[in-house]
Design a protein that fits this description.
alpha/beta; 8-stranded mixed beta sheet
Length: 286
């Protein structure tokens, strides 16, 4: 374990069936529990700027998905369905009640899948720049995966990670550098082959386990937040459209949903515009 990496928080862990040790942050108290799910190749501390404020009002739990952060890697499928099963079992094992699921990017797609398959597990969901709203044909998905593999071939894993994080911010001075430094340290704690397999399988899951056509089945209210300057959604090389259009088309499918587009903000909306997102979450949870 890397000492003090998750400061100012103290992490806990739990062993679940069919997976390794799951690391998580557990801060604050309250009758409502916010369960936060990070995005691709990220970590629980990606919610740091939200937890610091929201723990004053709620119990805030942010998990490291298997193979990410300080959670154990292993011979796991790393699909959206797999991550969803892990989140559901985690909530059941900790006997969490009055849950609001909060997911960013890939974590948003995981949150949607969890809420669809287990409508009773959460009373509301918050989706920050969620994956799954953008639709990929089988040909587009294959092309996208191939282009990412070629990019990785010509660059180091650390360079790929750094580039992705920088693209996630509209303004990325110190706040992006801090996250990059943490994630590079964490990446070095995992066997390289395990890390690469986790990333590849996670990307495959986002592309091949779509949720758009099931959004109309969501039975819980949803808050959807996007940054207007999101450079990752849509995949502009394949879809010459706008973030706003992708967001509006997805939200239109959900029976009870509200959409907030935050100006001058990129893909990492909950970090880059933490104050605005925290206030939106508080109003929505109430």
């Amino acid at each position: 374990m890397i000492p003090n990496l998750y400061a100012p928080f103290i992490t806990k862990s739990i062993k679940l069936d069919g997976t390794g040790k799951i690391n998580y942050i557990d801060e604050g108290t309250g009758t409502t529990t916010l369960v936060m799910i990070h995005g691709l190749a990220n970590y629980a501390l990606g919610w740091k700027r939200n937890i610091l404020e929201l723990r004053k009002h709620y119990r805030c739990i942010a998990i490291d998905l298997p193979g990410n952060g300080l959670s154990e890697p292993g011979d796991f499928p790393y699909s959206i369905q797999y991550f969803s099963n892990v989140v559901f079992e985690f909530i059941e094992r900790l006997r969490l009640e009055n849950v609001v699921l909060i997911g960013h990017s890939m974590g948003g797609q995981v949150a949607i899948t969890t809420a669809l398959e287990h409508p009773q597990v959460a009373r509301k969901i918050v989706l920050c720049a969620p994956a799954g709203f953008e639709i990929f044909t089988p040909w587009e998905a294959s092309l996208y995966e191939t282009s990412l593999s070629i990019f990785d071939y010509f660059s180091s894993d650390e360079a790929s990670l750094t580039n992705t994080i920088y693209q996630s911010f509209y303004h990325h001075p110190q706040q992006a550098n801090e996250m990059v430094q943490d994630l590079v340290k964490l990446q070095r704690t995992h066997p390289l082959t395990d890390y690469r397999r986790m990333v590849k399988a996670s990307i495959h899951g986002m592309l091949h386990e779509p949720v758009f056509n099931s959004l109309h089945l969501l039975q819980v209210p949803a808050l959807v937040v996007f940054g207007e300057k999101d450079a990752l959604i849509p995949a502009k090389a394949l879809h010459p459209t706008t973030t706003r259009k992708i967001a509006e088309e997805g939200v239109a499918q959900i029976p009870d949903a509200s959409l907030h587009l935050i100006p001058d903000c990129g893909h990492f909306v909950q970090w880059e515009k933490a104050n605005e997102v925290n206030e939106l979450i508080r109003k929505f949870v109430k």
